[in-house]
Amino acid sequence: MAQAQTVDINLGEVLRQVAREKEIDYERWVVALEDAMASAAKKQHRIKEPVRAHWNEETGKFDAWIVKQVVEEVEDPAAEWTLEEAREHKSDAEVGEEILIPISTEGLGRIAAQSAKQVLYQRVREAEREKVYNEFIDRVGEVVNGTVKRFERGDIIVDLGRTEAIVPRPEQARHERYTQGERIRGVIVEVHKQPKGPQIVMSRTDPRLLVKLFEMEVPEIYDGTVVIKAAVRAPGERAKVAVYSRERDVDPVGACVGMKGSRVQAIIRELRGEKIDIIEYSEDLVTFAQSALAPAKITRVSVHHSGDRPHLDVIVEDEQLSLAIGKRGQNVRLAAELIGCRIDIKSETDVKDEVADALARMLQGAFTQEAPSGSMTDELDLTSVPGVGSKTAADLRGAGFTTLQTLVEATPEDLQKVDGVGPKTAQSILNWAQEKAAKIESGAGDLGVSMPAVEGAATMNDRDFFAALSKALGESEQKAREAEELVQEAEADAAAPSGENGGTPEDAADERNDPA
Asked: Over 70: is that where the pLDDT of 170 sits?
């Protein structure tokens, strides 16, 4: 029989080779191996106390000890000794010192070896994850390329070469579909040390992906000539980017679009057809808002500073309203996020209607306030009549004089039949009743205008109407001014010639119909 050959294995060389392959520090491998050997020795000897192991690189052997801490008062009997107990093993022991009791590491059994293997694997795994964390933690916000490796419960696992990344379902664009082995590009949004799953989280929906793609495609952005001030996205549908130039001669929008749209088209292809609005940034909030709401044309923007962020009232022409709001409110929502303001959009017709309704309510209230209240048949409080006390008033009510109508129709003789009413009192009561009846009958006529005229005034469309309106409305002065400006523009448009050569609309029509 052939004799068995003994192979002398240098453990130090093996550890160095594995450290190079795994790209983990050699010292970390030694510490991991020592922890594994300590666990194996503890398992072999069934020890509950803490065990420490040390590898002697020169001899290639492991030493192991039970570790006891010397304390004044024992809280953990497995790991601590009192000073008296410690001096039984070491005569000069002091409080705070560690007592090491050697144990054998020879002949470790299968169970101990399995425990050592598990500990070693765990330490190596921790070292690998820490290495990945240290490598990528400073790359958050960068764009990386990878390959789709597999799918797990809707999440995409991406192979980055030396490690894996994950694209969670919330970070995926709804319209994008990938297959195994397909190239994928995303921005790193998080790097963690959690023990399970990939440590690197990528996103296809984060606005930082859009910014980085512009940096890659537009040299002016990469070198800092053009700056991206803000970027917002509705992933897969529309995005808005605000840019400005640090040099007067460089057009920021043109630089981002490129020759015949080549630069922005490359980004659109990468984002699978997502539409991108490139907007020139402006310090003026009104100008910026008008640009942000493109492609809609804005008639007027009013700024109100209330609360944490400004509030914009935007007025557009009726046919531009749906374009300004966008599909499911997408355009106005993205514009509000881009400029950091709350935006309310109204059409010119809505503003005019609001102003007209407000004027009608104010004028109606004015008439109600000026006109005398009550009617001829309402029950009277006769104590308000000069010279009539409570007893006389009660006697008058008992005689049937309870309304203004009955007093106007009465004669002085009728009133004198009531106890306590003499000729002077009777005449005073009649004068008071007739004067009050005259005011009620005159009503709004005393103001020189009727209610139908008021309703007509609410729909007037001239400059005088809105000039009066700005004074009549207290809380709606801004709306009155806006409506007045709309009317002025409408009058200017109506007065302006519409023909190509400066003629009237009729002249333009004649020119089109003239064969010559």
From this structure: yes
CB 461 within 8 A of CB 487: yes
Phi/psi for 312 (5° steps) reads: -110, 130
Q: Residue 386 phi/psi, 5° resolution? A: -55, 130
Any alpha helices (H) in 258-411, and if so which ranges?
Answer: 262-270, 285-292, 321-325, 330-339, 348-370, 390-398, 404-409
Mean of per-residue pLDDT scores for the chain? 76
- Kindly tell me if the per-residue pLDDT of 46 is higher than 70: yes
Of residues 286, 268, 185, the one with CA closest to residue 278:
268
Structure tokens at 511: 């020119």
142 within 8 A of 189, measured Cβ to Cβ: no
> Are 221 and 210 contacting, i.e. CB atoms less than 8 angstroms apart?
no
Residue 40 and residue 35: Cα distance in Å, rounded?
A: 9
Could you report how far apart the first and last alpha carbons of the chain are, in Å?
Answer: 121
Does 302 fall in a domain? no
Q: Residues 332-376: pLDDT tens digits?
A: 899 888 988 888 888 888 888 877 777 777 766 555 544 445 566
pLDDT of residue 186: 92
**113: in domain:** yes
Q: Name, in order, each residue with C-beta under 8 angstroms of 143's C-beta and a sequence gap of 6 or more.
A: 185, 186, 187, 188, 209, 212, 213, 216
Answer whether residue 477 shows pLDDT above 60.
no
Whole-number pLDDT of residue 266: 92
* Tens of pLDDT, residues 136-164: 888 898 999 999 999 998 899 999 888 88
Query: What φ, ψ does residue 93 adopt, rounded to 5°?
Result: -65, 145
Q: How many helices (H) and strands (E) does the chain have?
A: 20, 15
Identify the domain containing residue 428 by its residue range: 382-441
Is residue 333 within 8 Å of residue 325, measured between CB atoms?
no
Predicted pLDDT of residue 8: 40
Beta strands in 192-332 (DSSP E): 200-203, 226-234, 238-245, 275-280, 298-305, 310-316
Residue 262 Cα to chain centre, angstroms:
32
Give the CATH number, domain containing residue 52: 3.30.1480.10
Domain count of the chain? 3
Query: From edge to edge, which strands make up the β-sheet containing 238-245?
Result: 226-234, 238-245, 275-280
412 prior amide bond cis, ω within 30: no
Domain check: are 84 and 104 in the same one? yes
Q: Which of 102, 131, 160 is the last residue of a domain?
A: 131
pLDDT at 168 over 90: yes
For residue 125 the two structure tokens come to: 């795994």
Q: Which residues contact 42 (CB under 8 A, 6 or more apart)?
A: 51
Q: Any idea what the CATH number is for the domain that residue 426 is in?
A: 1.10.150.20
**Full-prediction pTM beyond 0.90?**
no
Is residue 66 over pLDDT 90? no
- Structural domain ending residue among the three candidates 205, 238, 260: 205
